[in-house]
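S2.1 Query sequence (FTR1 family iron permease)
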Amino acid sequence: MNEQVLFIVWRESVEAILVVGIAYAWLKQSEARVGLRYLWLGVLGGLVLAGLMGVGLMSAGSFLQGQAQEVFQAAMVLIACALILQMVVWMRAHGRTLKADMQQGLAESVADSRYWGIALLVAIAVAREGSETIVFLYGMGMAQLQAGGITGFVLSAAIGFGLALITFWVLQLGTRVFSWKLFFRITEILLLLLAASLFVSGLERLIGLGVLPAGPDPLWDTSAWLDDGSGLGGILASFAGYRAWPPFAVVVGYAVYWIVVLGLLSWQNHRAPSRHTSHRVSVEPT
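Output structure tokens follow.
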């Protein structure tokens, strides 16, 4: 569970830091230093917006009781899965032009002396990454809070953010060491596996609530070879949705998930112009 928390915070923090880094580098090189104040104002505004969303989610979760709270948490897990898929698709479509699009928006704001536009641009970007992180982690955080292990959750989140800062610094050393393109490709695969894990968790919650019939349960039992409670099986369970004794409904849902994901990515590749058929990311801040 904590590995998932660390990975999510690390990945989302890198994206947010990347956006802020692009804006910071461009404003410094453009000698539009007055815009830097608005940049940090936008960062603060984005963090406040993300925090307000977190407070809203926590309030909604505590307001609901009994089965309604269980349904709410199941819905949040499935929404987190959908958001991860949306994020992967969005990055594949826009990652290549992210830097150019941002710089164009910054240039227009500076030319018109609309520095509040810079603050708004950065605030939206930071709030987007922050709110996604909150939605992704909500179900995990509530489970750990109820189990009394919130310290490990907070520590994993802090380590994830620290690793994000280190990752960004390493990537700034040059693409000879590790490229943004490779970074996004590897994390894209990990995100799809993690979304599969969240989807399985959501299906299990729906089965537990009686909303979804389990079917033959378990469909098989491989716990003697690979237990999903510890070791390699535990890691696969956390990051890929592996189950040693899954019910029929989970197996079918898992298969449908990958059919939908592969179909969606295939459709996206065919729909993109020929120059975008390969996933190319050139978002290195200057």
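DSSP finds nine helices and no strands in the chain. Residues 225 and 244 are 9 Å apart (CA to CA).
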